[in-house]
Design brief:
226 residues; 31% strand; globular; 10-stranded mixed β-sheet; 5 helices; two-stranded antiparallel ribbon
Amino acid sequence: MFQYDPPEVPFLEFIFRDEHVAVMHKPHGLLSVPGKAAEHRDSLHYRLSRTLPTATVVHRLDMATSGIIVFALNKEAHRHISKQFENREVKKTYNALVHGLVEDSHGAIELPLRCDWPNRPKQMVDHKQGKHALTHYSLEDQKTTDKSEPYTLVELSPITGRSHQLRVHLNAIGHPILGDRLYAHPQALNMASRLCLHATYLSFTHPHTGRLVEFSCKLSLTQFLN
């Protein structure tokens, strides 16, 4: 259970828009699509559809995650971009603040995931029944002082797109994302007022021009914590 209190400002934030796609910045705390309950109707798609009625959902970000998300504005664009996601042709990167000091400058986390049914929507690592999941990571910045717990800013590139993949993978290697109410231990949870996960980069082939389009929207280490 949670109390849904979506941010009102900015109501809609466009990164790019033409006749075929709308690339948006989703704030943390706002659902990507409406929930089942009436009080969870407010979402990025609901807001966008009031301005652009033909907008359809191509992919989603968790409510607590902020950053770049794309919507299709016609059937052909939806088909085209959805196929790119299905074929893993869309490139995505995220930034996350994680607990502790990550030792390796880069690496890969390859752990199979499935739903933790008794505790859903949580996901879990399961080497027998889980689906293949792969995440590449690299270090961006680190901070450690005598006055606070150490933390690391990492860049994440999910190769697969499992639910909660980044959150579960980082927790599984002992570096939960700060502010993660589902997976973080108390120290990591209390270090931030929000989930410190942000979709920073998205690229795909434009459904009309056939050209590669790239969009970026980064957060600094201090922006996560302010």
